[in-house]
Amino acid sequence: MDVSLYQQFATDVLGVTFKQLDILITAFTHRSYVNEHRKTVTEHNERLEFLGDAVLELVVTQYLYSTYTDPEGVLTNWRSALVRTESIGAAAERNGFEPLLRLSRGEKRGTARARAQIMANAYEAVIGAVYLDQGYDAAKTLIEKTLLTTFEEILQTGSWMDPKSHLQEIVQSKAGFTPQYKVLEEDGPDHEKTFTVGVLVDGELMGKGSGPSKQAAQVAAAEAALLVYK
User: Fold this and answer.
1) pLDDT of 44-77, one tens digit each?
2) How many Cα atoms are found within 13 Å in the side-chain-facing hemisphere of 92?
3) Which of 161, 149, 91, 99 is CA-nearest to residue 120?
4) At residue 110, what are phi and psi to the nearest 5 degrees?
5) For the chain, which terminus, N or C, has the lower number of CB atoms within 10 Å?
6) Which residue segments constitute the domains of the chain, with CATH numbers given?
7) Contact 22, 129 (CB under 8 A)
8) In angstroms, what is the C-alpha Rg of the chain?
9) How many C-beta atoms lie closer than 10 Å to residue 36's C-beta?
10) Quick one: 43 exposed, middle or buried, by C-beta within 10 A (0-12, 13-18, 19+)?
11) Euclidean distance between CA atoms 54 and 49, whole angstroms
């Protein structure tokens, strides 16, 4: 392990000098890595992730409350868009988290969805590490710099809405129709089915998506259709 990479990351990305660099290294350590290195590594990042999740939610909530006067329901939706796996995973990717992840050989070969979740978890864990080592203000600065700067784009694109609601709003405004969802295919045994769903607008197939449930497949289909309406 090259400790200097974590020192450089702390300086260049986090803008701080860690007092206890091992806390930051733990923030990048996945449970699977510990399982493969039991003799030399004892801690993974899940406790830091738990802490960082709470700090993240507080900082985002405080920012939205202080900046906007919209009602609670809207602020809640905006907060959900900012702290969801896709948003914080993308923030981790933009800021160079991936090369520092400590994963098992199996996890390194995992799916894109699994990797996105690992990146999101690492982002929260790093927030927890910064909070422990540097305090609340440093954690807040990190969140503002790496995540809150994306909020204007979230507002402009409407991505704070769930994909089905977003698609319905766009289709109704542009075409005057309500999207309809239809199961196109079911594969696999009953305990492990994969559903493929199509979303139709005025009878025309606008997008397809697959998932382990009809609801998940509908969301994937809506996301595919949104690309058509961009």
Assistant:
1) 999 999 999 999 999 999 999 999 999 998 898 8
2) 27
3) 91
4) -70, 175
5) C
6) 3-157 (1.10.1520.10), 163-228 (3.30.160.20)
7) no
8) 20
9) 15
10) middle
11) 9
Q: Map tokens 């801690």 to a residue.
A: 43
Mind spelling out the 3-state secondary structure of 9-33? HHHHHHCCCCCCHHHHHHHCECHHH
Six token digits for residue 96: 């160079």
pTM higher than 0.85 for the full model? no
Burial degree of 129 (CB within 10 A; 0-12, 13-18, 19+): buried
100: left (phi over 0), alpha (psi -120 to 50) or beta: alpha
Residue for token pair 């709003």? 169
Residue 116 half-sphere exposure toward CB, CA atoms < 13 A: 9
Q: How far apart are CA 137 and CA 144, in angstroms?
A: 10
Q: Is 162 left (phi over 0), alpha (psi -120 to 50) or beta?
A: beta
**Of 55, 60, 92, whose CA–CA distance to 78 is shortest?**
60
Catalytic machinery residues: 53, 124
Predicted confidence (pLDDT) per residue in 165-179, tens digit: 778 878 888 888 999
Q: What's phi and psi for 210, nearest 5 deg?
A: -125, 155
Checking DSSP bridges between strand 204-211 and strand 180-187, what pairing results, if any?
A: unpaired
